[in-house]
Structures are given as C-alpha cells and as structure tokens.
Amino acid sequence: MNMRAFFIVLFSFIIPLPQATCEGMFAASAGQGSWHFLQQSIGISAMHMQLLHNDKVVIYDRTDFGSSNISLPGCHCRHDPGDMALRVDCTAHSVLYDVVANSFRPLMVHTDTWCSSGAVLPNGTLVQTGGFNDGDRVVRTFTPCEDDSCDWVEHPNLLSERRWYASNQILPDGRIIIIGGRNQYNYEFYPRGYNSPSTFRLDFLFGTRDDVEDNLYPFVHLLTDGNLFIFANTRAISLDYHTNRIVKEFPPIAGGDPRNYPSSGSSVLLPLDENKGPIQAEVLICGGAPPGAFARVVRNGIFTRALASCGRLRVTDSNPSWVMESMPLTRVMGDMLLLPNGDVMIINGADMGTAGWESARSPVTRPVIYRPINVNNERFAVMSPSSRPRMYHSAAILLADGRVLVGGSNPHIGYNFDAEFPTDLSLEAYSPPYLSTEYEPVRPRIVHSDPVMGYGLPFSVTFTVQQYLTAAVLSVNIIAPSFTTHSYGMNQRMVILRMSDVSPATHNTYNVVAVGPSAAEIAPPGYYLLFVLHAGVPSSGIWVRIK
Ligand SMILES: *[C@@H]1O[C@H](CO)[C@@H](O)[C@H](O)[C@H]1NC(C)=O
Ligand SMILES: *[C@@H]1O[C@H](CO)[C@@H](O)[C@H](O)[C@H]1NC(C)=O
C-alpha cells in the first residue's frame, strides 16, 4: 500500500467521519452516501427529466399550472386560448440544466406536456410524446447542441391517439413504441410506419384497469428475445409487437397489490450480463400501494401505508415465478435507478397514500440501495436522508459522474409554496457510497475510449488507477439513461460487457478490450454511458454511441 492510500484508509477508519455539518451540505457518513444542494430554484418543478449525451438535462413540468418562477427566453409569451390557467403566459415550463456548469436556461414549450413520456432516438434527439389538453397528440423533439441555440420543436397531431400517462420504449430498430395512456388500450410507433395501421389494440391494458385505473404508466422492458415485458396493475405479459401477439402471460405478482399509477411502485430490468450465456433477464418491481388505497384517499381522506414488498421475476426462465422480498422501508412513488456498480437505487416517495393531488403524506427521505447479486435478506441498505420531501411529481436520474440528480415534488394542482409539502423547484444531487473519497486509490479513471461501439465488435478503453488489483475485479458496463417521470425510469438498461483483453500500458495505465453488445435486443442503438468498474468502484461514465 502506498503512503497516500495508507493515509486515506487511516483517515476513514480512525478519524470519525463528519456528521451532518454545513447545513446538510455533507450529511452522514460515506457508508450511506451524501446529499449536495445544487439549485434552490430552477424556476419549475422537475416532473420529467432526461439526461442527454452532452451532459445536459431536459426538464419540464406542465404548461397549465399558471406562472412558473422563470421567464421565457427573450421576453416571449405564450398565447394559448385553450390553456386552463393562463391564456397569456410569459413564464417557461421547461429548462435545460447543464450538469457540468451547474446552470440552467429556460426552454419554450407551446402545448401541454403534463404527464407525458419520452425516449431518446439513436441519433441523440429526445422525442417527447403526448401530454394533456392541446398537447395530448403532440410529439416534441429536442436535439442537443453545444451553444444555447437549441429548443423544443413541436409536431402537432403526430400521434394517432391521445397519450396521457403512456410509457415509451426505444426498440432495436431505432423506433419508439408508445404504449397505453389514460383510456388508451393500444400502442403506436414513432415514426409511424407506412402501409400499416397506426394504432394496435392491446386488450391487456383494458383488462388491467380497476376502479381507479392502477395501470397507467405501465412498466415496459425490452427483453433479450426482442419481445416487450409489459406490467400493468398486478399482471405481466410478454408482447411480440411485430405481430401484436401476446407470447406469454406471466403469473400475477404475488400478494395482489397494484404497482402502477396511481398506486405507483417502480421497476427496472436488472443488469444484463454478456458473460453469462444465454443472457438472463430479470425484472424487479418495488413498492406501490395496497388495493383501494387511492380511492380511500380521494373519497375518505384516509392514507394507507405503502407497500414494503418487491417482486423479482426471471423472465427468461421457462416457468418464471415471482420471488418476493421486503424493503426495509415502505414506499410509494419511489424512483428506481440502475447504478454503475449494478446496484439499484430506490429514492424519493412517501410512506402513506398514493400518487395524485394531495394524496400522500409522510415522505420517505432515505433512499435504499438494493444489491441484486447478494443473497436474499442481505440485499438492502438504507442510505442517508435528503433534507427535502420528494413526493408526487418528483424525479431522479443517474448522471455521468455517478451521482443521482433529484428534483421536483408538487402534490398540488398549481404551484403552492405555502403548504405542508410545498411545490419544490430545487435540484439536489445524491452521491452513493461508491463516490466516497476512501475509494480513490482503486477508482479507475477513463482516459481514452473509442467513441463508437459496434455490435459484437472489439472496443478499447484506457484507464488509470492508483492501485491496480487484478483483472478479476474489473468490468466494463454500459447504461442507457432513463426518461424519468412519475416514479418510473423508461428505457434505462445496463449491460455488463464481455472483456477480451486487459493489458498494462504505461505506469498505472491499463488497456481493456471489451466486446460490444451481442445484439440490438440487448442494447438498442444510441448513446450510452460507459463505466469501468474496479473492485466494485466505478469510474466516471463517458458517452459512447452504439451503432
Ligand atoms: C416563486 O415565485 C413566487 C411568486 O413570486 C414566490 O412567492 C415564491 O417564493 C417563489 N418560489 C421559489 C421557490 O423561488
Ligand atoms: C435525429 O433524427 C430525427 C428524426 O429523423 C431528426 O428530426 C433529428 O434532427 C435527428 N437528430 C440529429 C442530431 O441528427
């Protein structure tokens, strides 16, 4: 061990770690991560968030809230006779947040984006679909740029159906599928195909409604066989969208509790490992609310305790069955995010009630980390708390440097700063324990990589590390960033790549040759964050484009 590492280890074990100092700037110990306040106000509440490949985050809420706290660029105003709150509105309802500079600028949306969905095309352009009122059939695109010139471009009437609370998934051929939404028991594609119907019926969505719906924002994951896993309420199917055929009906999640909006749990596809052949796919769903919870809040004002349970289903098994586990904290409206070390973060949400206006209380400020590779009962760890409640209409996304960007929370029908859970316009970052300085000696730093990764083709990455252990503790993985809204990160997926060679270059510098994903069903084309992991400690991510 060199002297520097020795002192770092000495420091972290002998000297007690600082406790909650600097007004929450650095709360609790490294073992539970730390919170950092980024912006007191970005002018809007972060209801929807997407990280783009230039490390800027598109954030938006809705246009019919009335005024936001940020003016439109260039003193523009929006004239919208159909707006329910404000016909002439000179405030912005979308911003672009620059992660590196920690700054933001207003963007212009013309029509209502409330409770909509999105996905990023293989070329890096964000496609946002639907919303409410005058915006429910609009597609909006945002193409990232290096200066301040880019803004939303709106394409009216591009959707064949109204899409409000729908879910999107990028497909292996680069199209986007848009599934469901309120009163929509069907799906469609962007771009729309020629010579084919524009809408495809999906009776499964009709069959999973209950008296309060509980099947909105269905959880959709692209499976390794190219079919789509779709989970709504308590049930799950595998859909062949090419032929509009349900290939398989999975057993309902054990316990019979609803998991989708407004009983919002969350879901991820666990990391796909190219080193295991055939590749296994597992879906994890956590949290939600018991049956009838939403109706009890809105009809009787009774707040029901949220669920503690998670269900894990190995969908590639021939007869899969749900394995149930218990989170250490109950949670509804938790966001689930894949972290670069393969763990799953569950963050934001509440302990009582459901999603919806004024429908929850008792915020859960402590994130939980789930370690899928550990044995059952040793998978969860409780992390240090945020200073802010992040309930209905909050969001969280992974950033390239491994932090988690957290914003929003607005359980009110308009902006209300004078309530028990006020409208929150701030941004915070949560740093998971792997970012702790005690891991610096073993943290890899990527110094070079190929910009483009081909399917099944070699890809080289060069990194430095102070203390190299062995190739056995090295891995290379890619993560597709999520479009997050309403406690669900659409399109996120992680692939652990095969490595074909590791060789030392100069002092402390190593070359790794990884192999691009085996197929577009494993990782659809587009921009991914690539991380090198050494002894479980991730590097900062760099952007690679898979073609
Ligand atoms: C937003 O603007 C309103 C009205 O000007 C003000 O009362 C409120 O404090 C502002 N909120 C934040 C978080 O900046
Ligand atoms: C990506 O493709 C879309 C749809 O064809 C197009 O509108 C957009 O400009 C393209 N973006 C880039 C960065 O070329």
TrEMBL record:
Keywords: Signal. Residues 443-546 form the Galactose oxidase-like Early set domain. InterPro entries: Gal_Oxase/kelch_b-propeller (IPR011043), Gal_Oxidase_central_sf (IPR037293), Glyoxal_oxidase_N (IPR009880), GO-like_E_set (IPR015202), Ig-like_fold (IPR013783), Ig_E-set (IPR014756). Residues 47-434 form the Glyoxal oxidase N-terminal domain. SUPFAM superfamilies: E set domains, Galactose oxidase, central domain. This is Galactose oxidase. Gene3D superfamilies: Galactose oxidase/kelch, beta-propeller (2.130.10.80), Immunoglobulins (2.60.40.10). It holds the Pfam family GO-like_E_set. It comes from Nepenthes gracilis.
